[in-house]
Amino acid sequence: MKQTNILSAAALTLLITACARPELPQQNGWQPAETVNDFSAEGRIAVKLEGKGSYANFDWTYQNQVQTININTPIGSTVGQLCQDNQGVLAVDNKGRTYEAATAQELSNRLLGFELPIQYLHIWASGKRVAGAPYQLLPDSRLQQFDWTISRTLNSNGKPKTLLLESPKLTLRLAFDNLDDHPEGNTQTQCAARK
């Protein structure tokens, strides 16, 4: 897999059309994220870049301020992993090659030629906005922040059903099959792929 496909597959896996369960729009006004609770999630991601789309499955954990997103094929094989911890960001491809940078912007620019908002996904998925950063709330309850327009729908239990991120170049849609906001304890404090 080419380096540029690692993050594209990750982004695409997060974006996919929502299932038939009832969806409710974001309700809380995108409050500033002072903290984000730990969670684990799985679902599908779809990515649309310059009119071309792709999709994949994902499993995602955010625990102890370590964010790990595995991008998987429909049969469950991992094709790539993105991980962010307090030391920076890592991408691991399906051949075990590791790519590292200090920030998500730097890594995605290097591998893809544009920025992916990996460092903010857990905040937006939680229905919050990045505190201390410029933003705008649109009349239809969408959030604009960092050149992205973000919308979120909730299922009947009030948990995220979809997260849609749109920019002039790229659209990402994550459809959540499951989100556990009380995952079992994990003592890991850095990316597992970090040597």
From TrEMBL:
Main location: membrane
Signal peptide: 1-20
CC per GO annotation: cell outer membrane
Mode of membrane association: Lipid-anchor
PROSITE patterns referenced in this protein's UniProt entry, alphabetically: PROKAR_LIPOPROTEIN (PS51257)
Location in or out of the cell: Cell outer membrane
Highest taxon listed in the record's lineage: Bacteria
Family: Belongs to the LolB family.
InterPro entries: LolA/LolB/LppX, OM_lipoprot_LolB
Organism: Morococcus cerebrosus
GO biological process, one term: protein transport
Self-association and partners: Monomer.
Keyword annotations from UniProtKB, A to Z: Cell outer membrane, Chaperone, Lipoprotein, Membrane, Palmitate, Protein transport, Signal, Transport
Protein name per its UniProtKB record: Outer-membrane lipoprotein LolB
